[in-house]
Predict the structure.
Amino acid sequence: MTEAPDWKSQFPVRQSAEHDVSRRQFAKVACCSALAVSAAWALRDKILPLPTATAPKLVARVTDVPVGGSRLFRYPTEDHPAILVRLGESEFAAYSQACTHLMCPVHYQHEKQQFFCPCHEGFFSAQDGRVLAGPPPRALPRYPVEIRNGEIWITPATA
Ligand code: FES
């Protein structure tokens, strides 16, 4: 009777099961990587706060945006979508257009004076950007608006 070689007791994996082990390990690594990337994506706004703009930006002329209307623009950089809304005859507000939950773009609903995020039904006030309902953890970042000679300017926030 032949005795099993010593290495078999130290590495008890059959040759036919080698691929199962590596598949399992691959699945673990893939799942952990996907979780890490998802967590980083969800937290990127917390980890990397919005950059600070240093110069005012002309967004539109007052006559270009009717009451109840909106205008999309990019602020504080070309990578950051933002939205200007005209709440009343002389009332404008501008916010980041990226939902604070998972960054989906929000849409303005003038009849309710609110922003709606269709991804997970988040709602924000158009008056001040605060969360009204849904999963968003914090208010939409708001940008100061100035009217200068019939033009709508977004100005860098003063600390
Ligand atoms: S991304 Fe807006 S509610 Fe989830």
